[in-house]
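MODEL INPUT / OUTPUT PAIR
PAIR INDEX: 1
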Amino acid sequence: MRLDDIIPITPEFIFTHTMDYSQEHNGTALLVVNAFEEAHKEGARGTLLAWVSQQRYAFKLAPDVIIDISDYMDRKIEIQLLHASQANKNWPERWRATALFWGKWSFNCKGEYGEAFKTLRIGKLF
């Protein structure tokens, strides 16, 4: 898919990773951020949200958006386990605990589980 294919879609939100311990996450984050900046130069709008893990929060990347994912938590875990890199790990309890942490941390999250994001700004991304 080319940038010209994405701009007409005009998404309200674009989700990506933060820079973290994973080469794959870092590569994805850089590609998405670069595409986001290029799209903005072409007049596209939308909000870029980077996923915040508890580890990143510990390093001062505090979320400013927490989305209630309570209705989707089981499905999220089911889908994550489809990834070959995740399937053989005992991570569902960890994912659930992290979402519970963010759900309880947020005043806006009405459900039990939350997903944390940081709004990224052009020119000040990580």
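PAIR INDEX: 2
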Amino acid sequence: MESTLALTEALIRCPSITPKDLGCQDIIIQRLTQMGFRIERFEIEGVSNLWARIGDKAPLLVLAGHTDVVPVGNEAQWHYPPFAAMQADGLLYGRGAADMKGGLAAMITACERFLAKNTLKESSLAFLITSDEEGPSIHGTRAVLEILKKRNEIPTWCLVGEPSSETILGDVIKVGRRGSLTGFLTIRGKQGHVAYPHLARNPVHFAVQALNELLNIQWQKADPLFPETNLQIVNIQAGTGATNVIPSHLDVNFNIRFSPPLNSKIIQSQIEALLHQQAFEFDLRWHCVGNTFYTEIDSPLIKALLNAVESEQKLKPRCCTKGGTSDGRFFAEYGCHVAELGLINATIHQVNEHVQISDLLTLSRIYESVLEQLLT
């Protein structure tokens, strides 16, 4: 079998900008088939999804990840072509090297070594891989889990190979995430000439006070295991482009990253109550990207990860819940214990994304240790 490095290189050379897979899952399926995994492919609205399982009994451990990557940005700023998978000074460069084709390769080679030594008689192992993690995340992991739920095939544990590490491989394990809620607000006014403001209603002026009040909401204090709840205004648009016209409406989008004990319904109610006190009419639409989740430290999954990292890296990982959303949130909705451990995330989504080549094999050994602890 190819090494973790060679497999990572092969995956990087597939220019799988979300939601395209462009051959990544074909490469993965070839490896998994040789190990004896049963393969199912789900093509949903242009998204490629892969479910592969070996074993029939519980507990079921799922290794989860994605083959899609974000766009490369300004290619002229890259030291090497972003899909060439070039090596230099102990580093492997390429879009997706850290996020998260290196993690996928490490998971696959860990399984190869594990299954060469073990037969699953009282447990099961599976992969759930999608090409829709960096995009809307509607037709990927979420959709496949709905299918698995109908088959009563929900996993016991889920290990997501997202790049969780910060400065040293294994220094951070994500054991939960804040929730994410986006509001799409339209403030309605009345268009008019700027010289006759008494004949118009300026939605921009209305917005100044209302948005200031939104930013000054004192949210309920977060659980000590989570960062504080935070609201950020991310987009404002108004006007016709003319400098002598009061606009008819203003559109503003804002996102709240929220922590327990808050939930999306509490936040929506609080913000809607504030807006109803304002002197303007409005329309408000919500989109909850994901609710909070947390896996207890005494979960067998977390214990196995802590043991594996401490044994391999001689360091004690920090368990945390900060950062953005991942597909782990979809597993958590079904009661699955979820954790994220992967490569260093310092260059993800940037030009010149890269990983330490030595970290690829180390991560594979960490994953192999987790398999040994949970499935034997």
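PAIR 2 NOTE: The chain has a mean pLDDT of 97.
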